[in-house]
Amino acid sequence: MANASGISSVVLADNPLTEEGRRAAQVERAARERQKQALNLQRENILSQRTSNPGRRAALEAALAQIETQLQAMN
Q1: Distance CA 44, CA 34 (A)
Q2: Alpha-carbon distance 7 to 26, whole Å?
Q3: Long-range contacts of 58-67 (CB under 8 A, 24+ apart)
């Protein structure tokens, strides 16, 4: 994605010498932290649910596996 000057925000984030690069890196870190927090909340919600229905239990296990995969990919 290009900004007004036509320079990619990815390039700016890789250049810590510019103010725009530092800001882009800070925004990216904040977005990653929010995403991690949301995934952890979803994980806790799934872990807190109790069910005797085998179909529901399988769905919760699949959702938990997907969330844990996403969390590992972020680290």
Answers
A1: 15
A2: 17
A3: 67/39, 67/42, 67/43
Burial of 60 (0-12, 13-18, 19+ CB in 10 A): middle
The full set of domain ranges for the chain reads: 9-74
CA distance 7 to 1: 8
**pLDDT confidence band for 13 (50 / 70 / 90):** low
Q: What secondary structure letter does DSSP report for 6?
A: S
pTM of full prediction above 0.90: no
pLDDT at 11 > cutoff 60: no
